[in-house]
Amino acid sequence: MKRRQAKPTFKPYIMAQPSLMPSSWEEMIPGDHLVRVVNRAVDQIDLAPLLRKYKGDGTSSYYPGVMLKVLVYAYTQRIYSSRQIAKALRENVNFLWLSGGNRPDFRTINGFRGEKMKGVMELLVEEGYVKDEGGSECEPAQSGMVEAPAGGGGHRGISIFPN
User: Fold this and answer.
1) Residue 160's CB: how many other CB atoms inside 10 A?
2) What's the mean pLDDT in 19-38?
3) Which residues contact 105 (CB under 8 A, 6 or more apart)?
4) If both were cysteines, with which of 17, 25, 114, 124 could 129 make a disulfide (CB 3.0 to 4.6 Å apart)?
């Protein structure tokens, strides 16, 4: 007697179904995760030098503290390209949480890094918030990327230290 072949059973797949779990990104990130360290460290930084670079007219801007958090966390993850950072802001839970759901595009990220951050990275190193592991001054390049000096062979690492 032959056994009758059973039909396969699949788990439900409904993309538009509302979900109650998790109710926030907060629940998805462990308390000791690096993204939380970056968040606390940047919250302790005096943002006055950055805030002075903004004019009162024109369209609204992303808050400089959010942009700084995103950049510092991206660098700790070895993400330097503004396009890759923008992609992470759309796809990565840690970046979504850190930015509060804000998703600046790559031009905004590059503009912030190039125009607003001039001199600020050096200030962060001086204040002890960021450790330059390359052994030389942090210097934003023309592209807006933090690069090692000539002969350095690319990006150097940075580490953040909350005071």
Assistant:
1) 20
2) 84
3) 86
4) 124
pLDDT at 85: 98
User: 6-26, pLDDT tens digit by residue?
Assistant: 776 676 777 676 766 666 778
Judge contact between 113 and 71, C-beta under 8 A. Answer: yes
Among candidate residues 54, 5, 121, the one with its CA nearest the CA of residue 62: 54
Whether the Cβ atoms of residue 156 and residue 132 lie closer than 8 Å to each other:
yes
Closest CA to 155 of 88, 38, 77, 87: 77
Rg of the chain in Å (alpha carbons): 21
Cis peptide before 22 (omega within 30 of 0): yes
Q: What is the mean pLDDT of residues 25-47?
A: 90
